[in-house]
UniProtKB/TrEMBL annotation:
<dbReference type="InterPro" id="IPR006089">
    <property type="entry name" value="Acyl-CoA_DH_CS"/>
</dbReference>
<dbReference type="InterPro" id="IPR006091">
    <property type="entry name" value="Acyl-CoA_Oxase/DH_mid-dom"/>
</dbReference>
<keyword id="KW-0274">FAD</keyword>
<protein>
    <recommendedName>
        <fullName>Cyclohex-1-ene-1-carbonyl-CoA dehydrogenase</fullName>
        <ecNumber>1.3.8.10</ecNumber>
    </recommendedName>
</protein>
<dbReference type="InterPro" id="IPR036250">
    <property type="entry name" value="AcylCo_DH-like_C"/>
</dbReference>
<dbReference type="InterPro" id="IPR046373">
    <property type="entry name" value="Acyl-CoA_Oxase/DH_mid-dom_sf"/>
</dbReference>
<comment type="similarity">
    <text>Belongs to the acyl-CoA dehydrogenase family.</text>
</comment>
<dbReference type="Pfam" id="PF02770">
    <property type="entry name" value="Acyl-CoA_dh_M"/>
</dbReference>
<dbReference type="InterPro" id="IPR013786">
    <property type="entry name" value="AcylCoA_DH/ox_N"/>
</dbReference>
<keyword id="KW-0560">Oxidoreductase</keyword>
<feature type="domain" description="Acyl-CoA dehydrogenase/oxidase C-terminal">
    <location>
        <begin position="231"/>
        <end position="377"/>
    </location>
</feature>
<dbReference type="InterPro" id="IPR009075">
    <property type="entry name" value="AcylCo_DH/oxidase_C"/>
</dbReference>
<dbReference type="GO" id="GO:0003995">
    <property type="term" value="F:acyl-CoA dehydrogenase activity"/>
</dbReference>
<feature type="domain" description="Acyl-CoA oxidase/dehydrogenase middle">
    <location>
        <begin position="122"/>
        <end position="217"/>
    </location>
</feature>
<dbReference type="Pfam" id="PF02771">
    <property type="entry name" value="Acyl-CoA_dh_N"/>
</dbReference>
<keyword id="KW-0285">Flavoprotein</keyword>
<dbReference type="GO" id="GO:0050660">
    <property type="term" value="F:flavin adenine dinucleotide binding"/>
</dbReference>
Length: 380
């Protein structure tokens, strides 16, 4: 497979790298400590086109392909995975579904603001008792003619505290199983809709994660995306693309840890020479480099599949599975290479290690990716 990048893609890669170094790197440790991310910085990202990268320009997006998006995700994630998860959720889980399946009215009302970063969105599938087992939705959306009444709780919702628009998956007809599930656009401030407390997390601490509570929330029928009962398929199709974004995030975290390790190994001395000259360290670097390149090939392949209209469920799942495992392995090794310095915050690698863990969990755990992969290859 030819992964040579176009002029435009190289430019996006460089611009994302520059933005990460000049705007995200300063303060990344403090943001992680304080579990914050300034609105101003997020607005800057919107202004540069990061929040609606794949959305058509007529809806305020950047009109780019998935490969460009993946390149940007990789560069941002090398430095700040909290920033990149906000980008990923807004692009892949919110804008993509709205643009692909939304009505013209829904796109005009929500998509333009979301893709320019004027507002931000959240994707609400997980529940206290429905994480991996996503068809077991307990949140209900009862059909009342011209509106639905939503009741229930959603958990671990990325952007939960700062989003204005929430794509909420809920069960309308339990007897129909996954075919009785809908997806509704819920707006912040709707009566009965409450944002729960912020989670105190191991990693991606700059991004906010909340539970959401729905208590008799009236949602107009025109806020349903797609036909009645389309909600579960909507979630699956959305996540198939979302997983490419998270795979790129994992790749970026791994590559960030590797680049820091390479530089450190050539500077830090032990036993009279730079530690890179010790085979124990050199072999670690060789393993990291090889695995990251293999992960990159899978991630780019999945992005190209999506851009060229091929099925990307399998390639996206493989990319996410492998890149997230490589992110975890690589960041653990990076901390080991840095030794005592790796264990303190100033050197960044401990944060990358903490950030890597979630890539094996959200948007489908590694075990879920293996279900998706094995079912596909066995069916074939
Ligand atoms: N595209 C289209 N349709 C799909 C699909 C896909 N990729 N995957 C499944 N479907 C369809 C199936 O065809 C089936 O429809 P039919 O019966 O009409 O054929 C229907 O969906 C149900 O599929 P399954 O029978 O395969 O369902 P299952 O109960 O066995 O579950 C699963 C499948 C893959 C395990 C799924 O439940 C799953 O992906 N779980 C993980 C959920 C997940 O990723 N959660 C992450 C939360 S979101 C998040 O993390 C966001 C964030 O904030 C960062």
């Amino acid at each position: 497979m030819d992964f040579s990048l176009s002029e435009e893609q190289l430019m996006i890669q460089q611009a994302s790298k520059d933005f990460a170094q000049t705007e995200l790197l300063p303060g990344v440790i403090e943001r992680d400590d304080a579990q914050t991310f300034p609105d101003e910085l997020l607005r800057k990202m919107g202004g540069l086109g990061f929040m609606g990268m794949m959305v058509d320009e007529k809806y305020g997006g950047s009109g780019l392909g998935t490969l460009s998006y993946v390149l940007a995700m990789e560069e941002l994630s090398k430095v700040d995975a909290s920033a990149s998860v906000m980008v990923s959720v807004n692009n892949s889980l919110v804008c993509w579904g709205l643009e692909t399946y939304g009505t013209e009215e829904q796109k005009e009302k929500y998509l333009t603001k979301l893709s320019t970063g004027e507002i931000i969105g959240a994707f609400c599938l997980s529940e206290p008792e429905a994480g991996s087992d996503a068809t077991s939705q307990k949140t209900t959306a009862i059909d009342k003619g011209d509106h639905y009444v939503v009741n229930g709780t959603k958990n671990w919702i990325t952007n939960g505290g700062r989003a204005e628009v929430f794509l909420v998956i809920a069960q309308t007809d339990k007897d129909k199983g996954h075919r009785g599930i809908n997806v509704l656009i819920v707006e912040k401030g709707m009566e009965g809709f409450e944002i729960g407390p912020k989670e105190n997390k191991l990693g991606i601490r700059g991004s906010d994660t909340h539970s959401l509570l729905f208590n008799d929330v009236k949602v107009p029928k025109e806020n349903r995306i797609g036909n009645d009962g389309f909600g579960f398929k909507f979630a699956m199709k959305t996540l198939a693309g979302g997983r490419i974004g998270i795979a790129a995030q994992a790749l970026g975290i791994a590559a960030g840890a590797y680049e820091l390790s390479l530089k450190y190994s050539k500077e830090r001395k032990a036993f009279g020479t730079e530690i890179a000259n010790h085979q124990a360290i050199a072999f670690k670097l060789a393993d990291m480099h090889t695995k990251i390149q293999a992960a990159r090939n899978l991630v780019y392949q999945a992005a190209i599949d999506k851009d060229t209209g091929n099925d990307y469920t399998l390639s996206g799942a493989m990319a996410k599975l492998y890149a997230s495992e490589v992110a975890m392995e690589t960041t653990v090794e990076a901390v080991q290479i840095f030794g005592g310095n790796g264990f303190v915050k100033d050197y960044h690698v401990e944060r990358l290690m903490r950030d890597a863990k979630i890539t094996q969990i959200y948007e489908g755990t590694s075990e879920i990716q293996k279900i998706v992969i094995s079912r596909t290859i066995l069916k074939d």
